[in-house]
């Protein structure tokens, strides 16, 4: 696909940021915690600001943080944020609220990206947009380094291996995940009606019966979840700055 065709599609990013995780012992949910002086969510947003393939950003967040996001938007000159919507009880509810905005309704492609994954690049994002336009649904994935075993968790808490999956057929899936807007909306409506809850957007699309293409993931695109991930992200950012 030519760069011209990718640039002619309107692409909006949904950033679910309504989680309440405060595992760093901070007063703020982890997406608002500063990483080398800049909040994690701002670092993520700055990459989308620098990506020509992205036109707009919609953030789903708890109303308690809407003023905070508005302040960050002004402080860091984040020009692509066009809407901040209320987060839902589940991540899926947050995405559905964002999908209902007029900016999403006017988009050809919708990307969904975890606010807590700031280690992406404009080139990587452009690859997902392009793959979503071609395939309808596209996600980045890496072959796991570890051997993955499916286990049986016993009632008393013991864990026994049930089966070992062939590693070459497995992928650890990341975000951004990209979709043609009407396909994602149809999948979300179907999941909502059926009460299906998935752990990522692709699983909602799979549930609705659509196929999802997998493109190569980015090793440094870590999801900052634990204090160790946070240290790892600091180290990666420092090494990029001194490279
Ligand atoms: O809970 P988990 O770490 O999988 O959350 C992934 C992303 O989804 C985070 O950016 C989090 O803020 C967001 N989220 C949300 N609404 C929820 C739960 C999580 O927007 N109800």
Main features:
243 residues; Spore Coat Polysaccharide Biosynthesis Protein SpsA, Chain A; 8-stranded mixed β-sheet; two-stranded antiparallel ribbon; 12 strands; 37% helix; binds cytidine-5'-monophosphate
Question: How helix-rich are the residues, as a percent range?
Answer: 25-40%
The number of E-state strands comes to: 12
Shape: globular
**Domain count:** 1
- Could you give a short account of the major beta sheet? 8 strands, mixed
Please describe the topology of this protein:
Blueprint (H helix, E strand, L loop, with lengths): L2 H6 L2 E6 L17 E2 L2 E2 H10 L6 E6 L4 H10 L5 E6 L4 H9 L2 H4 L3 E4 L9 H14 L1 E6 L6 E5 L5 E6 L7 E2 L3 E4 H14 L6 H7 L5 E4 L10 H16 L1
Parallel strand pairs: 1-4, 1-6, 4-5, 7-12
Antiparallel strand pairs: 2-3, 6-11, 7-10, 7-11, 8-9
């Amino acid at each position: 696909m030519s760069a011209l065709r990718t640039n002619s599609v309107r692409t909006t990013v949904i950033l679910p940021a309504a989680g309440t995780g405060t595992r760093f012992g901070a007063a703020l949910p982890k997406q608002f915690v500063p990483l080398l002086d800049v909040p994690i969510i701002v670092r993520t947003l700055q990459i989308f600001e620098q990506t020509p393939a992205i036109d707009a950003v919609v953030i789903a967040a708890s109303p308690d943080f809407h003023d905070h996001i508005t302040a960050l938007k002004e402080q860091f000159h984040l020009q692509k944020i066009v809407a901040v919507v209320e987060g839902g009880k589940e991540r899926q509810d947050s995405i559905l609220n964002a999908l209902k905005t007029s900016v999403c309704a006017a988009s050809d492609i919708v990307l969904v990206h975890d606010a807590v994954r700031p280690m992406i690049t404009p080139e990587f994002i452009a690859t997902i947009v392009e793959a979503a336009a071609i395939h309808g649904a596209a996600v980045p994935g890496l072959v796991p380094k570890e051997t993955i075993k499916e286990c049986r968790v016993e009632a008393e808490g013991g864990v026994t291996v049930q089966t070992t999956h062939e590693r070459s057929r497995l992928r650890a899936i990341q975000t951004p995940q990209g979709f043609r807007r009407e396909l994602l909306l149809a999948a979300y409506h179907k999941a909502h009606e059926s009460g299906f809850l998935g752990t990522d957007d692709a699983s909602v699309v799979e549930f609705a019966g659509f196929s999802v293409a997998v493109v190569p993931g980015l090793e440094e695109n870590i999801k900052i979840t634990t204090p160790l991930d946070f240290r790892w992200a600091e180290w990666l950012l420092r090494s990029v700055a001194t490279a």
